[in-house]
Amino acid sequence: MVNPFVLSADDYTRDYNVVQGALEDAAHYLSRNTGDSHEVCLAYAKKAMMPGGELGMVDPKVKMLHRDTSTDRERGLTTFTQYLKHVQDNNLLMAPTMTVYNREENDPSILSTYTADRISERKVYKTRMFEAGQRADAVGKSIADSQQSSCKIDANSLSGAHNSEYSILFVKSAHSTLTSLCRMAAAYATANNEKFIQGNRHYWEPDTVYTNIAAICNMVNASDIDAVVQQYGLIYPDVEQTMACIDRSTQYYWTSVKHTAQIRQYVSGLTPTERAAFVYVGDLYHLAILNPGVVRELFDRFIKTPTFTVEDPDAVLADIDDDTKVYLSVMLQDVFRGRDFRKIKDVDPAGWQAMAGQVTLIREALVHYGPLIRTLWASKVAPASIAVLPNVIRRAVIAGDTDSTIFTTQWWVEWYLGKLEFSQTAYRVGATVAYFTSQMVVHLLATMSGNMGVSKHNLFMLSMKNEFCYPIFVPTNRSKHYFAYQLAKEGNVFEELELELKGAELRSAQTPAEIKALEMVMIDDIMKGIISKGSISAKDKLYTVAQIEHRIRKDIRGSSASWFRTRQVKAKDTYTNPYSSIWQYYEMWNEVFGLKYGMVEEPPYMAVSFKVSAKNKTEIQQWLDNIEDPDVRGRLQHWLQHRNKQQVSEIMLPLPVIDRVGVPDELIQGANLAKVIYTIMSPFYIILETLGFYYPTKPYIQLVSDRIPQAEVDAYFAETAA
Length: 722
Fold this sequence. Notes:
Strand content: 5-15%
Shape: globular
Number of strands: 13
Distance between the termini: 63 Å
Mean pLDDT: 92
Number of helices: 32
Structural class: alpha+beta
Low-confidence stretches: none
Largest sheet: 4 strands, antiparallel
Radius of gyration: 32 Å
Number of domains: 4
């Protein structure tokens, strides 16, 4: 069947006539505000905006480097529009950085071919890795994982080599081209998901609203919009409904009585068809808000469970694409769980039949809603304001990177079911939204590729796969720190939910084992509690943290070192400047504390990190004055002066000695206990912030246990246990 989300390769063309586009948009704005015809307003716009006019455009000068075949590069000067015209007239490739390349059919790249081969090879190894994992073959999985990783490293290493002037693979523009492509792809996907899932458009300043209205109205086919509205019984949004759509996307950025009034005037001049186009194109959220019955029926059709038998399931399943496979894996988790897709037919004929039935229903739904999908979700209109997307305030996309976007479908589950739950129906609703967005991204990236001039046979090479399904995903306020449960990866459903933990603070190897175990318990309790009950007791987590902190404080005061983070002190010759490294604390220990508590042998050895509150000379002197043992005090003072220490914030204590004798009293007397405890407990403070508890660290550290005394903690847990 024809995929309504994706156009034919011939339809993905480029249009670099930015001047004509600006004139058309200006004419539309004038026409809808004055009531004059588009033709009259276009003539006025040309007169006013072309060079020499009252608002004459200036064609920017462009400095460039160019060369003929096999010659050195030369400097050149042209104009922006002439630069674009030359690219389009000569059918050249142009990256988002505006770097121009010859076409592969005219000048094939050996390195591009090599990269493509590594990508294909990696896909084979990844398939083997998943297969090995599903049959519990740890060795086979590890081998295949190493092989796919090797292919990835080979391909990625070219980027670094291209960027090195000392490499024969040096290509100055290659790295920036690659980076810009990745960022553009991720930006389009993020902007699409925001608009489609949550009706959130990046209207960060008023001009973006004007231009987006004009662009949508000029680029869509009005008769197609009317046909879809009539066929599916949609309403034509009125002025207030259209303004509500706009307000949803401007409220976080700006407030202006003047511009709001001007936008309202513009919206009031739009035809009902234009308002429908503006509100509905690429926006499932507002389609549902204004047409709940229609969208509910749409979901009913897509998530429906088959109750019939497919005569030839092999034929139905012979040509399903990866996105459909991923869609099926979440819809039919019991069929896919722990199994290789290609072997389901042999081990579970009934499951194979269920898959064929589900695909049949999906295809029937795609045919039924084909005109709507093609008109509203596969239009030429791209999301607005991609250039400044890093500043977007998001509603749907909860995490992402330069090459990825992670979004939530929680709102849709709650909208469809009336509450948050993790039922099979909930998974089907979420999977349907994810399938829609994945297909739309295919179209958007093909549009982007076509605009760059990519050959038809490579038009869909730039792609973003629907990789992970997270039943629950918990982002934190720390960059690249989150925890989540994985249900499936690339259509492979795990036997059990798998924990994914990201971020150095959440998974540090230096974290004490007992703290790490307690951290994992809290993370599991939070996610399992949400899945099983729909809510958790945040107070319970808060008091748990207080309980652990009181225990740590008591143990430290008793000279225990069991809670401290550990690091390895290496041999002296390992460090470029040993006396600026943690090696210096080997010398310090033996000179200051060794005679009293025991000497430590030369590194390497493991050490514990002990925080000290001595930020200046005054605090250092206060620390020294509090030390009762005059010999230790004198040796410490001598070492500090000899090493010209103006402050001390951390001391590395040798674990082989500390395990026997504990933390020296002299250090405890100078310890910044709040900092020590906070350092040990830092993963828990990251977790508490996800529950809405924020504890400041400046100008001084405030601990949970500072606010909740031991007696209150004991009383709370006694009450909850009763």
